Amino acid sequence: MAAMTTGSTSRADANRRRILDVALAELLRDPDVSMDQIARAAGVVRRTVYGHFPNRETLIGTLVDDAVQALADAHAVGRAGVQDPVEALARCVLAVWPIADRYRLLVALAQRTVTMQGIRERLTPVRSSSVELLQRGLDQGGFRSALPAPALAYVVEQILFGLMEAVNDGLVPTDEAARAAATTVLTSAGVPASRAATLVGRIAE
Amino acid sequence: MAAMTTGSTSRADANRRRILDVALAELLRDPDVSMDQIARAAGVVRRTVYGHFPNRETLIGTLVDDAVQALADAHAVGRAGVQDPVEALARCVLAVWPIADRYRLLVALAQRTVTMQGIRERLTPVRSSSVELLQRGLDQGGFRSALPAPALAYVVEQILFGLMEAVNDGLVPTDEAARAAATTVLTSAGVPASRAATLVGRIAE
DNA sequence: AGTGATTTGCACAATGGCGTGCAACTGCAC
DNA sequence: GTGCAGTTGCACGCCATTGTGCAAATCACT
């Protein structure tokens, strides 16, 4: 157990990765899962988890960091080189969807409090670029809403979360989810339903 | 402390009510607040809380029951005697908004798990009447969406939650929130932004 | 088979929350 | 002021969870 922190061996790496994966899934179900439950679910003993992560906070922190990173990347890729805000938003949603779906635990954790409020802070860069996108669209008439851009950004965020739940509950087929999400988000931002549908259909090859 | 369960005295009633109010607020901030924190916030000792509610579960259960009741009532009132699905949905949102905002803790709790999954069940009556409303609107063309009615209901729900957060964070003025919520929900359901705005403006006196 | 990294299986102290019991206290009403 | 509902303050016992220590077992690789 000496060089457990080194993590260069295949076994250790595999375990570390599995722990992270399982922890993600378990925390998704219940933000309060015990370290023991996580360990067992990963086919490992509690003590081993502590061999890879000094404490619960670090474990979750790693998860959150990974998630935010992936999310920010996808978001950036979606907007890259697209000037029309409407199309940019559509592309963003399509790009972000798979990652957001995977790291859905962010919601559950963000919805909680105090110590976890840091998550909201970490997400602000993503959110603020969303706001900028929406603002531009509202200014030049591509979007239309009763809400100011920042509030609209909240709504967009929540819509995605709502659709994740819907997918979870089998109300929307997985393979259509991303397109449906993009279309719904555009619609919520005041893009006529028919235009939203054709635009998204054209973008999603 | 003998007849503490009777609760006919003014003092006991006042305390019970204050405990419920404070518990709502505290649970809103953190679904995991301790009974002690709730008690202190209510200006009372922990032991006294147990005088009114046998255990934490009962306390929360009371809160949830009250919330669901109020929500269902408001929802029913909103739809009462309105045949046009679009207008009915708008009225529903306007009617439900204040109650939903007050009992926002439902979100946090519902988002959590296992023991609390009962909440989603208790909410199904409300949700299913929403679904029926949306379905009717989709059928007769008032609504338009890439989603089936049940999924759209999830989205509507989440939009409301998102707006509550936005209000919380000062992004939307409280007095405009209800109208903005109604307009946004209609827009998300594919009602043209201009029509949604005028309709809601006409309904909200 | 040997070596070093990794995992396991205990045992441990510490924390913190829950629910309860009981005696003393407070306030209001009569 | 006597009485009684309600409250307080402290006492428990109980349980789950966290993070650590250490020796033995296990694994991968040579």
Write the layout of secondary structure elements.
2 copies of one chain form a homodimer.
Chain A: H1 10-29, H2 35-41, H3 46-52, H4 56-79, H5 85-102, H6 105-111, H7 117-139, H8 149-168, H9 174-188, H10 193-203
Chain A binds a DNA duplex (30 and 30 nucleotides) through residues 1-4, 6, 8-12, 15, 34-36, 44-48, 50-51, 54-56.
Please, could you describe this protein's structure?
The structure is a homodimer of 205-residue chains. The longest helix of chain A is centred in the N-terminal third of the chain and has 24 residues. In chain A, 74% of the residues lie in helices and 0% in strands. The N terminus of chain A is likely disordered. Chain A is built from ten helices and no strands. Chain A is elongated, with a radius of gyration of 19 Å. Chain A has 205 residues and is mainly α. Chain A has two domains: 54 residues, Arc Repressor Mutant, subunit A (Orthogonal Bundle); 149 residues, Tetracycline Repressor, domain 2, CATH 1.10.357.10. The termini of chain A are far apart.
In short:
Chain A is mainly α and 205 residues long. Helices cover 74% and strands 0% of the residues of chain A.
Question: Roughly what fraction of the amino acids of chain A lie in strands?
Answer: under 5%
Structural class of chain A: mainly alpha
Order of helices and strands of chain A: HHHHHHHHHH
Tally of separate domains of chain A: 2
Give the biggest beta sheet of chain A: none
Q: End-to-end span of chain A in angstroms? A: 49 Å
Spatial extent as radius of gyration of chain A: 19 Å
CATH structural class of the largest domain in chain A:
Mainly Alpha
User: What is the annotated CATH architecture of the largest domain in chain A?
Assistant: Orthogonal Bundle
Number of helices of chain A: 10
